[in-house]
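Work Package 4 report. The design task specified in the project plan requires that, given a folded chain encoded as structure tokens, an amino acid be chosen for each position. We show below one input record used in the internal validation round.
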């Protein structure tokens, strides 16, 4: 009897649950229909910009507009509701947003009992098509991908690459796909030799290696600082107990044709102090000669000649010695005058709470006397003019922070808000970042513009710094056309907060160019947005570029410790693996760069089996087989 009474109740509960499910499905389908309408409306609103892009970017431009529309609202609640039913998470919608939403709607409609049509072939084709377009765009810019590694490797060339073909061949043999020539250094003749060495090495290797020339853009840096006295130091090497392990060295070399001192031999850790002297006096010196001089602090010092060579004479002593230009060196009643000692490079010491005046006057700065403010030049007068009270100012990769207190014609007074205890040192030619200041500058300086015809003749692509707005890109495209350089690939370096915030508009204009990529310059970008956001913002740039089917270069300090020391840090291995989501990873120069290339090649090849863009691939993990 009790059982009989329960059955109708159970039926009513099932009916209520079914009705609730039906209502839930109806609501979710309505929300997806609204989203699809929003995508169509956004596409229509941007129809002029979409029509202006190059034909190979048309689908990417549409999808870029769809993706920015998707991300302009918080979709987390919708994601959770869809995942609860097993429809879609929308988390991997970058390849084709509209197709992904349609696929989720189909699942919901099927659960509701609808009979279709589902257009499955069209949806699958659209989802796969996004990946295919991105691959084609990457191949067009970077050349054919390696068989076992879809992500390319870019290497920044040292100056030696201009005159050392064997170095370039070693880089190509190790796995370099793109050579980056930094046009902030060296001269066009050296850039040309670098490019020629790449072409020769690639031909020998039988594969494609592209050349990218990187223009520096406007240089926002600290001005000169007054040098200290021309005083050098010859240093002994001591152990932890203060005992002398190796003597101090003086390298005496002819003033008319000086040579660099030899590298210190173990256990010495300090190179000999190079001093330019009279050639006739020097030619009379021999092993065992004793040279006397007076330290700038007063005491007399003696150095004994130990080595004589065609380039100079090495003399050694047992005391630290300070020597300045004009000092007399005596040997056997014969004297010569010391020269060639460079001035001491000074840096300003800045403390939290201290005021500093930034000025357009590039006269060398010096520490002010008591009661006066220290003044420091800024290489861009436009930056000083654009500052407003309250604007943050960051120096030397963000190591020193300040805020603008007042602005006068030609100068701005800032107060230091962040420095190390005891003060932080700030030298000349250090970077200045103005994350909240809008600068009236173009991305190409007149000097950059003058180099475009040369780059068009010798490189495959040009990288442009300081991209902040869509207007910057329009200017770059105009200048490329004026220089007959439309055939060059175009790399846009995103390194400012404004560049990140304006990236959708920047890319829509950039996609008018047939071959374009985005470089995530994480160094300056971290300073501009704050290091806390560095884990988040590059991922968002990767996703946006994937949606646009535009390749990305993952840059700044990848395997930096390995390239410089030969031994990687554990954290940078993980960082290098994250670069697999990009289409190219950039390595910087270093004495162990070929080791870094081979290591990165191995990491990227392994990661390609477990990750493609934002999607995890479930490769067979043999270690977990049940035995």
């Amino acid at each position: 009897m009790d059982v009989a009474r329960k059955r109708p109740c159970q039926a009513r509960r099932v009916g209520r649950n079914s009705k609730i499910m039906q209502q839930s499905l109806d609501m979710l389908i309505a929300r997806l229909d609204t989203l699809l309408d929003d995508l169509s409306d956004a596409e229509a609103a941007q129809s002029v910009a979409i029509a202006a892009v190059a034909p190979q970017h048309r689908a990417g431009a549409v999808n870029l507009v769809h993706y920015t529309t998707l991300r302009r609202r918080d979709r987390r609640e919708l994601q959770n509701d869809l995942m609860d039913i097993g429809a879609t998470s929308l988390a991997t919608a970058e390849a084709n947003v509209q197709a992904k939403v349609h696929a989720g709607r189909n699942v919901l409609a099927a659960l509701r009992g609808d009979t279709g049509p589902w257009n499955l072939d069209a949806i699958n084709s659209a989802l796969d098509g996004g990946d295919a377009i991105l691959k084609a765009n990457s191949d067009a810019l970077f050349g054919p991908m390696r068989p076992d590694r879809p992500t390319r490797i870019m290497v920044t060339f040292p100056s030696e690459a201009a005159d050392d073909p064997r170095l370039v061949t070693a880089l190509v043999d190790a796995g370099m796909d793109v050579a980056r020539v930094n046009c902030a250094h060296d001269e066009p003749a050296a850039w040309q030799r670098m490019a020629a060495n790449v072409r020769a090495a690639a031909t020998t290797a039988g594969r494609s290696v592209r050349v990218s020339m990187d223009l520096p853009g406007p240089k926002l840096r600290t001005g000169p600082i007054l040098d200290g006295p021309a005083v050098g130091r010859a240093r002994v090497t001591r152990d932890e107990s203060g005992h002398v392990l190796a003597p101090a060295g003086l390298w005496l070399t002819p003033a008319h044709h000086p040579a660099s001192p030899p590298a210190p031999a173990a256990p010495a850790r300090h190179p000999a102090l190079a001093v330019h002297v009279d050639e006739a006096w020097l030619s009379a010196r021999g092993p065992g000669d004793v040279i006397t001089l007076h330290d700038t602090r007063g005491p007399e010092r003696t150095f004994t000649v130990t080595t004589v060579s065609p380039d100079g004479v090495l003399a050694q002593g047992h005391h630290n010695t300070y020597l300045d230009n004009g000092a007399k060196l005596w040997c056997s009643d014969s004297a010569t005058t010391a020269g060639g000692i460079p001035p001491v490079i000074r840096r300003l010491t800045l403390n939290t709470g201290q005021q500093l005046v930034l000025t357009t006057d590039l006269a060398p700065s010096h520490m002010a006397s008591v009661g006066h403010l220290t003044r420091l030049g800024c290489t861009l007068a436009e930056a000083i003019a654009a500052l407003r009270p309250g604007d943050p100012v960051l120096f030397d990769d963000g190591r020193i922070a300040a805020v603008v207190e007042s602005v006068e014609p030609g100068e701005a007074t800032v107060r230091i808000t962040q420095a190390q205890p005891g003060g932080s040192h700030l030298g000349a030619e250090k970077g200045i970042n103005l994350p909240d200041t809008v600068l009236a500058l173009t991305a190409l300086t007149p000097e950059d513009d003058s180099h475009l015809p040369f780059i068009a003749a010798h490189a495959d692509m040009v990288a442009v710094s300081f991209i902040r707005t869509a207007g910057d890109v329009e200017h770059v495209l105009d200048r490329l056309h004026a220089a007959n350089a439309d055939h060059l690939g175009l790399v846009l370096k995103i390194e400012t907060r404004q560049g990140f915030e304006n990236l959708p508009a920047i890319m829509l204009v950039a996609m008018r160019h047939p071959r374009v990529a985005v470089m995530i310059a994480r160094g300056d970008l971290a300073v501009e947005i704050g290091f806390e956001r560095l884990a988040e913002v590059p991922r968002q740039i990767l996703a946006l570029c994937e949606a646009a089917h535009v390749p990305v270069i993952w840059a700044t300090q990848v395997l930096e410790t390995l390239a410089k020391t030969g031994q990687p840090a554990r954290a940078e291995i993980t960082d290098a693996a994250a670069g697999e989501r990009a289409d190219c990873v950039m390595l910087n120069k270093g004495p162990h760069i070929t080791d870094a290339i081979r290591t990165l090649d191995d990491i990227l090849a392994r990661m390609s089996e477990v990750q493609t863009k934002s999607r995890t691939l479930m490769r067979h993990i043999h270690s977990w087989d049940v035995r």
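The mean pLDDT is 93. Validation will be extended to a larger panel in the next phase.
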